[in-house]
Amino acid sequence: MKVILISVMLLVVATIGTGVYFISKGTSGKKIKKILGINLAAYIPIMLVAITFVVPEIVYAVSEGQAGGTSGLGFIAVALSTGLAAIGAGYAVGTVGSAALGAVSEDPKILGKTLIFVGLAEGIAIYGLIISIIILGRL
C-alpha cells in the first residue's frame, strides 16, 4: 500500500516539476498537453488501484466499531454526492458562464436571462449538498 501511495506522490511531483520546467523554457502548449496526457495516463490507473485497496479497509474499520455496520458506506455516499455535485456544478458554471459572458458582450439587454442559466448551473451543487444532508440524517 505504501508503495502505491509513494508512486502516486512521485508522479504528482513529477507532473508539477515537468510543468514548471516547460513553462520556464517557453515550450508550446501542444507539447505540454502531450506530456500532461502521459502523466494522467499513468496517474489515473495508479489512483484506481490505491482506491481499490484503501476504501474496503476504511469501510471495514468503521463498520467494526459500530452496531449497524453500514455507517462507513453512508459516509462514502455523502462524500461522493457532495463531491460529484460540486465537480458537475463547477463544469456547468464554467461552460454556461463563458457562454453568458460572450452573449452579454454582444447584447447587454440579455444579462438577466443569462444570470438565470448561471444560477441553474450553481443549483447542481446545492442539490448534492441537500442529498448529503438527507443521507447524514438517516445515519
Please write out the topology.
Elements: H1 2-25, H2 29-64, H3 71-106, H4 111-138
Structural class: mainly alpha
Range of strand content = under 5%
**Oligomeric assembly:** single chain
Predict the CATH topology of the largest domain: F1FO ATP Synthase
Notes on the structure:
With 139 residues, the protein is an all-alpha fold. It folds into 2 domains: 1-63; 70-139, F1FO ATP Synthase (Up-down Bundle). It is 89% helix and 0% strand. The chain has helices at residues 2-25, 29-64, 71-106, 111-138. Helix 1 (2-25) runs antiparallel to helix 2 (29-64) and helix 2 runs antiparallel to helix 3 (71-106). The longest helix has 36 residues, at 29-64. The protein is flat and about 60 Å long.
